[in-house]
Amino acid sequence: xxxxxxxxxxxxxxxxxxxxxxxxxxKPSFVDEVIVVDNGSTDNTNDVAxxxxxxxxxxxxxxxxxxxxxxxxxASGDIIITSDGDNSYPLTNLGIMLSCMEKGHYDFVTxxxxxxxxxxxxxxxxxxxxxFISWLIRALFKIGLRDSQSGMMAFKKGFLDAIKxxxxxxxxxxxxxxxxxxxxxxxxxxxxISYLKRIGDVKFKKIDAVQNLYSVLCLYxxxx
Length: 224
Fold this sequence. Notes:
Helices cover 37% and strands 16% of the residues. The longest helix is centred in the middle third of the chain and has 18 residues, at 124-141. The protein has helices at 17-25, 45-51, 64-71, 93-104, 124-141, 172-182, 206-222, and strands at residues 7-13, 33-38, 55-58, 79-82, 108-112, 153-156, 188-192. Helix 5 packs parallel to helix 7 (206-222). Strand 2 (33-38), helix 2 (45-51) and strand 3 (55-58) form a beta-alpha-beta unit.
């Protein structure tokens, strides 16, 4: 519990046993529930999750967004936080996110990785793609979002009922942010967080950046 609020963390995983182990062994004591969404792992991700008392949701359909669409409804916390299974977003960030949400009376808070504390945490080409897509989103939608590609977000229970995220791929988190910021009934905030070099194989591919860019443009011209 955090100030009498139940805290749930939802983590999509595809072969993330090493990163997930690091996350679960170091999770803050105020985390009440961890939902691990197994997106078809062939390693020991499930075993690691079970050993640490996590709830496992199985989703065979591939996709970052698809995993979240299955895992988020299973969370029962008053506040739900998203993170990645590779330990790139250390759960030490949770206190920062929750404090920001509480002080600003926000419904939705997203973590901003820039400027990065650990300069080698992200490949140079990924940084350029992040900067460009985030700039484009600010320009098109007129919202003050510094890091549109961050995978760490915190929101109140019921938040997802107010928005409809359609993307089932890597663009899921950016669409969630855009729709939240554009909704006048949702109070949004952004706070700086730490970001680490991922544990395990890199899942993000160059084509994902292209698809994210395409998704932004589609959302801009067809938003409803």
